[in-house]
Amino acid sequence: MSQTGRRIPISRPYITVEEIEAVVRVLKSGFLAQGSEVYAFEREFAEYIGVKHAVAVANGTAGLDLALKAVGIREGDEVITTPFTFIATANAILYQRAKPVFADIDPKTYNLDPNSVLEAITPRTRAIIVVHLYGQPAEMKAFREIADDYKLLLIEDCAQAHGATFMGRKVGGFGEVAVFSFYATKNMTTGEGGMIVTNDDKIAEKTRILRDQGQVAKYVHEELGYNYRMTNIQAAIGRVQLRRLEEMNNKRIENAHYLTSHLSGIKGIIPPYVDPRVKHVFHQYVIRVSGEFPLTRDKLAEKLREKDVDTAVHYPIPVHQQPLYRRLGYPQNICPNAIEASRRVLSLPVHPLLTREDLGYIINAIKELAGG
């Protein structure tokens, strides 16, 4: 057992009495489905990000699907994205019968590399989906310039980057449209849930119609829509979580800095690089385990698990090497930086409920395994 007498989890939702009371209030109201709580959450989230519109949906994947539909991605189009992400990013492109085109990552930040994106552009390219991986914003100045120069749509996958900033500006407002996830492990949660944000009135209106069975008025269905709505119960949790987001992010950042300050001297352990222009909100704290460490990445994870420290690998298989994408005929040797990262990265606990004792135990466990 750890010094705390319990297992240290890789993630844990930070739920307080305030969230519980908000849910109880909605349950007592009798209005459980999409309604006033959802609309209030949308207004508050749009204001927080600094955009005109926010459209709440059932989850982040639904948000990506609707965002791509709303901007007009369709069969035959190519959309450039990263293979080093959760598979939903690329699958949302497939939902449109469009073609995901994978560009490689920057080996320091693990985010999409603008130079690799430039090499992937063809006459059929319609859009770029940029993922702010682990909570670190991608190179948005370069991506905005590329999108403008080539007349491409820029879409942000902000599923892991609530409150992150690039050059002082929150992610979610750089592209034509962006999508956040509120899954249970995220920096803020509604259990399941997502939010589409945009400054474009037409995109906002289109996604609102599509999320609600294509309705433009009660029982008047103009489009082939979906049931992608968020409930008032979820939104009530989200409103409280949003008010607490900066506090929770600051705790993640504090935990990350503490880990880095104590792990940076261990041979073979490479702490996360932080671009000086960004606010990294550390959805994940990801080390790279190099060949200089006495254990492989997987062996280190196994040994830490034996010491009651949970870890995870985000992500062990690049998207283009997943069985589905193999069957679709994607070459397996593309994006070498993404492949190498998938063999080396390891996520350590960084969530806001960790104590200083927890962090010290994690650090000492790694030092012990390093032979120090």
TrEMBL record:
Keywords, in A-Z order: Aminotransferase, Pyridoxal phosphate, Transferase
InterPro entries: DegT/StrS_aminotransferase, PyrdxlP-dep_Trfase, PyrdxlP-dep_Trfase_major, PyrdxlP-dep_Trfase_small
GO molecular-function term, one example from the UniProt record: pyridoxal phosphate binding
Pfam families to which the protein is assigned, alphabetical: DegT_DnrJ_EryC1
Signal peptide: none
CDD domains: AHBA_syn
BP terms from Gene Ontology: polysaccharide biosynthetic process
Top-level lineage group: Archaea
PANTHER family given in the database record: DTDP-4-AMINO-4,6-DIDEOXYGALACTOSE TRANSAMINASE, TRANSAMINASE
Family: Belongs to the DegT/DnrJ/EryC1 family.
Protein name in UniProt: DegT/DnrJ/EryC1/StrS family aminotransferase
Species of provenance: Ignisphaera aggregans
